[in-house]
Structure formats: structure tokens, C-alpha cells
Amino acid sequence: MTATSLNPSRAKRLKALTRDTHEVLDNSIMAKASFESIEGYGRFVLVQYRFHREIDALYGDAALQALLPELPERRRLPLITADLRDLERSLPQSAEPPAFGEGGEVDVAAALGWLYVAEGSNMGAALLRKEAAKMGLSDTHGARHLAPAPEGPAAHWRAFTAALDAVDLTTEEEARVVAGANAAFARVQALANAQLG
Questions:
Q1: Is the dihedral angle over the CA atoms 58, 46, 154, 174 positive or is it negative?
Q2: Does 8 map to a domain?
Q3: Does a structural domain hold residue 127?
Q4: Cut 0.90: pTM above it
Q5: What is the tally of structural domains in the chain?
Q6: Numbers of helices and strands, H then E, in the chain
């Protein structure tokens, strides 16, 4: 039996299994008042940059592209980089290699969990975009990475989750998807703790 025969959908299971970790992360980011000043927002964008640097190579991975249509168009690191330039922030340097390196062998199941976290953050971006706008930032200056997809965030998310749910995985691979999502949330939490104080 494959895990795809389980109910509810993979995306809904991931949401349920990562709910507590996700809520702690959301609360900690909002508690740091990231959106009360350009300075605070800049720190938030640095967290985004560091996380998306970890997963940027996934958007060019052929195996993942075959499973998730339009994956390259979902890549946000260039938008975040442009936002940091608008904010006159230097790109952070890291001695550590990213979680997923260029040309490295990718555990597709774990990578699906990481991408679930990255794509899910787009759903919360609408609220953050409004807060950024209060500081004079926009979809073309400083808050590019928060801009919604042309079809809207809900449709963008549904297209992703439909593709995610359609992937045929074994029960063991399913567990690696969940582990990947939890690892991604933990990584963002560690970055937020370090960057936001």
C-alpha cells in the first residue's frame, strides 16, 4: 500500500502534523515586531534570504520539476535579494553550505517537505504585505517577495498542493516528507531566533 491511499490529503496531513511547530514560529516572528520599522522588517527579510538560500537549488532539480509543475517560477531567492538591495542591506555570508546544494543528490521526499513550508509561507504573505505597505514598501520596492502570484495566493497554493498530493510515495517516503517539513520549520525558527533576537 502506498501512502497516497491514505486520507486526508498529504497537504492536510502535513498541516496537522506541523501545526504546533508552525504556530510557535509565526508567534515568535510577530512577537519580534518585525513589521513596526524598516529596520525590523529588514531583519525579517534576512531570515527569508537565509532560508531560501537553503532550498534554492531545489527549484532547478529535474526530479522535483517533474513532480511539481512550474516549480522554477516559484523560486523567491532573486526577489528577496532584490528586496535586500532596496533596503540597502548587504547579502549575508555563510560559511555553512545550504541544506540543498547545487548539483547535490536530493532526497525527493524530504525536499517535498521543505518546499511545502516555503510555499505555505506565501499564504501568510498577504497580511505581511499589508504591513510592509504601511512602511512605504511595495511589490516593486522592498517587498517583492511578498507579492502574490498573478492567479492569487489561494489558487497558487491549490495548484501546489494538488501536485504535492498527486506524488506517489511509500509509507517510508511519506515519513521523510513530514520530517523534511519539520526540519524546514526548525531551520526557519533557528534563523529567526538568531536574526531577530
A1: positive
A2: no
A3: yes
A4: yes
A5: 1
A6: 7, 0
Contact 34/44 with Cβ under 8 angstroms? yes
Residue 1: pLDDT above 80?
Answer: no
Write out pLDDT tens, residues 12-41. 999 999 998 888 888 888 787 678 899 999
- In the chain, the largest separation of any two C-alpha atoms, in whole Å, equals 53
Mean pLDDT of 155-172: 96
* Residues 143, 147, 153, 156, CA torsion sign: negative
Number of C-beta neighbours around residue 76 at 10 A = 24
Give the DSSP H or E segment for 47: helix 38-55
User: 79 pairs with which residues across the strands?
Assistant: none
Judge whether 152 lies within some domain: yes
Q: What is the CATH number of the domain that holds 32?
A: 1.20.910.10
Per the structure, the complete domain to which residue 185 belongs is given by 21-196
Q: What are the residues whose beta carbons fall under 8 Å from the beta carbon of 78, sequence distance 6 or more?
A: none
Q: What is the DSSP secondary-structure string of 86-155?
A: HTT-PPPP-SSPPSS-TT----HHHHHHHHHHHHHHHHHHHHHHHHHHTTT-BTTBB-GGGSPPTT-HHH
Q: How far apart are CA 9 and CA 25, in angstroms?
A: 23
Instruction: Quote the CA–CA distance of 64 and 104 in Å, as a whole number.
Output: 13
User: Residue 122 in contact with residue 156, Cβ under 8 Å?
Assistant: yes
Q: Within a domain: residue 5? A: no
User: What is the rounded distance in angstroms from the CA atom of residue 19 to the CA atom of residue 100?
Assistant: 24
